[in-house]
Amino acid sequence: MVNLETISPEDIEQRSNYMLGGSGSSFWFDKSISLCFFADARYGFNAEHSWADAPVVAHIQEYCMTEEVLGDLYTEDGHCKDVPGVTQSSYKMPTMLIWEVNNQLSIHIERAMTFVTENNSDLDLRVRIHEVYGKGFMKKSKISPDAYVQVALQLAYYKDAKKFALTYEASMTRLYRMGRTETVRSLTPESCAFVKAMVEDNRSDEEKARLLHEAAKVHVQLYKDAMSGRGVDRHMFALYVLSKGFNQESDFLHHALTMPWTLSTSQTPQQQMSSSPRLDYANRDKVCPGGGFGPVSDQGYGISYMFPEDSMLFFHVSSKKSCPLTDSQRMQDNIFQALADMKQLLENVEKSKT
Question: What is the pTM of this model?
Answer without folding.
Answer: 0.92
